[in-house]
Amino acid sequence: MPGRPRLAFAFLAALALPALVAATQASSDTGASVAAAARATATAPARGKQQASLGSGKRVVLAFGGDIHFEGVLAGKLAASPSTLLVPIAPTMRRADLAIANLETAITQSGVAAPKTYTFRAPPSAFEALRRGEIDVVSMANNHGMDFGVTGLRDSLAAAERYRFPVVGIGRNAKQAYAPYRTTINGQRIAVIGATQVLDDHLVSSWTAGPGKPGLASAKDVPRLVRAVRGARRSADTVVVFLHWGVELRECPTADQRALARALVRAGADVVVGGHAHRVQGAGRMGRALVGYGLGNFVWYGTSEASTRSGVLFVTVTGRRVDSYRWEPARIVDGVPRPMTGSERASALRSWRSLRGCTGLRP
Question: Where do the domains of the chain lie?
């Protein structure tokens, strides 16, 4: 990818550590496990020397996009030209050193559909479309990551390896599923973990990765996710956690989301972002970290005016320090995000800033 030499590290990481993630609706028992983890992590890791917390001392720009699938009108666009599908948003994503999004579909042509209302799948060319759209890493930890079972999971991993495309939150076992994607940019060691707090109750057991068991990294097992964050913290300058969480169509984060964010920040996460609500939610600072509760849809068929509101969250970090963050609003047209301009952009930015009011986060 022109101008982004870090991808040499990305390809190696994709081959060495294939990881993935799945998500669905957050269940009522999550709050107890989150609260327990929050108590267990009540003491934040020692900060150490200021220079150590800044890593190499050089800034890295991260970009985050929301939910992606290739259903409806997008299926035909992908079949016709995967290399041009995401051209409208590619220049925006190219402004970042590392661009991350949520791939909410199985990448498979086989397997048996899971017993649920909506099941999504796409051909391996989806990874070409993502790369041409200047997206570098995706989480597959969501409520569609295993829509076509273990067969679909294995196909997804094989396609990611074939395209040398890094994925997180999913794996052939728990170790792979919870493993971070690692890369070094501007001398900074970046670790990205994916997990899902959204899993259909009747699929939680079969979709959650375990010892020798393929599946997704579940954020319902909060202590397990906290251990993954702490492990990444020991050898990374910046730790990112990309989550599938919350309740569809809600404008404000749930108590479970807020508790989980606190637990992960206390465990050492510097940036915690995610989605699932299919609408944009607020973002802001939690202590020294940056939390973004809802990125909205990204590459998706629009079902309502709110569901077509999209955008990219840019976060600039220097090691553990979050230097700045900003929202670049977009509108989904024919399934693809297109950056807003003029008065529409200004109005969207005002709306996005107002969403912080119900998050408990600081500007």
Answer: 7-358
Count of C-beta atoms within a 10 Å radius of residue 221? 21
* Cα 147 → chain centroid: 18
**What are the residues facing 331 on neighbouring strands?**
309, 338
Scanning the structure block, which residue is given the tokens 């600081």?
Answer: 362
CA distance 172 to 298: 27
> CA of 200: how far to CAs of 115, 118, 206, 213, 272, in Å?
10, 12, 10, 18, 23
Closest CA to 147 of 174, 176, 121, 110: 121
Question: Residues 104-135: pLDDT tens digits?
Answer: 999 999 999 999 999 999 999 999 999 999 99
Task: Tell me which residue of 167, 168, 96, 89 sits closest to 129, measured CA to CA.
Answer: 89
Q: How far, in Å, CA of 253 to CA of 21, rounded?
A: 20
Beta strands in 140-268 (DSSP E): 167-168, 170-171, 181-185, 188-196, 215-216, 238-244
Residues with Cβ within 8 Å of 73's Cβ and at least 6 positions away in sequence, in order, are 301, 334, 335
Write the CATH number of the domain with boundaries 7-358.
3.60.21.10
Element (H, E) at 311: strand 309-318
Task: Report how far residue 107's alpha carbon sits from residue 129's, in angstroms, rounded to the nearest whole number.
Answer: 13
% of the chain at pLDDT higher than 90: 84
Calpha distance 85→281 (Å, rounded): 26
Cα end-to-end span (Å), the chain: 33
- Residue whose C-alpha is closest to residue 98's, from 312, 341, 300: 312
Task: Give the C-alpha separation, 88 to 299, whole Å.
Answer: 11
- 139-157 pLDDT, tens digit each: 999 999 999 999 999 999 9
- In this prediction, residue 33 has a pLDDT band, given cuts at 50, 70 and 90, of very low
pLDDT for the residue 52: 75
Q: Which helix (H) or strand (E) holds 2?
A: none
DSSP code for 295: B
